[in-house]
Structures are given as C-alpha cells and as structure tokens.
Amino acid sequence: MDNYHVCRIAVAPIRKEPSDRSEIVSQILFGDRVTVLEKTEKWCLIVTKHDNYEGWMDYKQLQKITDLQFNDEQAYQYLTPAQLDNTVIASNGTKFYLSPGSTLPYFNNGNCFIGENEFMVTSKPFIPNKVDFTLNVEETAKFFLNTPYSWGGRTFFGIDCSGFVQAVYKLNGVSLKRDASQQAQDGDTVDFLAAAQLGDLAFFDNEEGKITHVGMMLSNSEIVHSAGMVRIDPIDDQGIYNVELAKYTHKLRIIKRFV
C-alpha cells in the first residue's frame, strides 16, 4: 500500500473511531502530511508527520504522494500567515479558504502543489523564524482572541487549548506535540510563577492530577488560553482567575519554557 499522503482540503477532522459520528480528537490542515496505517473503503487510520498523532479520517480528504515528496522537508517550509484571507485557488478556479499556519507544499512564484495539483496562492506566505519568537508571539496569540473553544480544533473557527498554543508556536517556528499532557513533558521547568516570561506555557491539572489544560503566559500575571473562547485572564500561584465568573477555573501545576 502507498501510505504517504497530504491533506488536500482546508481542514479535515481526525476521529477517534472510523465513523462520522465519532468524536473529533484533532484536525489536520491543508498541506499537513500523514502516513496511512490501515484503510477500509472509506476510512483510514493515519498518523500525522508534524506531531505523531493517530486517528481515523475520510480517505477522500487525502492526496497520495510519493515517498520523495513526503520526506522533502525543504518543500514544506512556507506557511499561511496569521490573517483572515489565506485563499488558494485550484486550477479549476474553485477556492480554498485556509486557516493561519496551513502549509503550502512546494511553494514557488505564487503557486503551491498538493501532489500534482497546482494552487495559486493569493496571500504572502512566510517561513517562520524562531529567532523572532519573543518579538512576534504575543501578536500571534492575540490574533486568535475570541476564537470559540472547540474540542480537537486547530483553526480560528474553533480551537482547543493545546491546539491554540501549538498553532501559535508553529507560526513562530517552534514545534509542539498535540495534547497538553504531551506538551508538558517537554521544555524546561520555570521554578516560580514570578519568573515566568512572555511565551512560557502554563499547565493545569484536574482533581486526579492529570494535566488537562494549557495556556501561554503574556507576563508573570496574565495568560492567554482557550477556555470557552480564546481569552486573557489573570493568573497567580493558585491558577487562572476568571473575573466574569469571580472564581478560579484552572489549578496551576507547572510552567515550562520552550524557547
């Protein structure tokens, strides 16, 4: 079986089970690469290249590519920027409206390619640079403000807490794992909240001690995170305080620095 593929639509759901009724555990965006592990007539079990995440998706949403195209890292450097209009136009004239942080494979002279299919890129794509992380990360995060919370979401039409920080980091040249509990395994520990800096990630646990939430520090007293929607809230040693609800909503477990 030729098992290398790339997402050919703007956003595709990854599901827990091979059924349209099954829970969406994540999404892949235009240009994301996956390896197909199993295939039925409609469904395929995939693992993503960018964050090694497994799930089921509709095979029709993928385009088969060669081993060479799959492993050509240089071809997947350009991303769509943090703006609303990231339209690409297929050769038949139809449009795809892409989310920020979508990959534009083989971008060159205003065009990109999904397999052999050519798309005209109307926006100005860019190659993210980790060197400028601290300069740009706050503006990137604030672009997503008011985006509704959506379990498994990775776009500005709906995003979950770990998908939010993953997208913000990706747009600034840093790769993160998919889920908050996985992300918390990486990075360097910041010992005290007072030492937290812009761009650090704060992780929060539930009553059982499992990490279930993540947000990005704007300072040592403010955090931006996806809870109901992407919002900015005060944070102290106890956790996140929601002024609207007049209570603490998330209990602080650990702060990690990735850059």
UniProtKB/TrEMBL annotation:
One of the GO BP terms on file: proteolysis
GO-annotated molecular function: cysteine-type peptidase activity
Keywords carried by this UniProt record: Hydrolase, Protease, Thiol protease
Domain of life: Bacteria
SH3b domain residues: 1-66
Domain NlpC/P60: 131-259
Stored InterPro entries: NLP_P60_dom (IPR000064), Papain-like_cys_pep_sf (IPR038765), Peptidase_C40 (IPR051202), SH3-like_bac-type (IPR003646), SH3_16 (IPR041382)
Signal peptide extent: none
Family: Belongs to the peptidase C40 family.
Protein name per the record: NlpC/P60 family protein
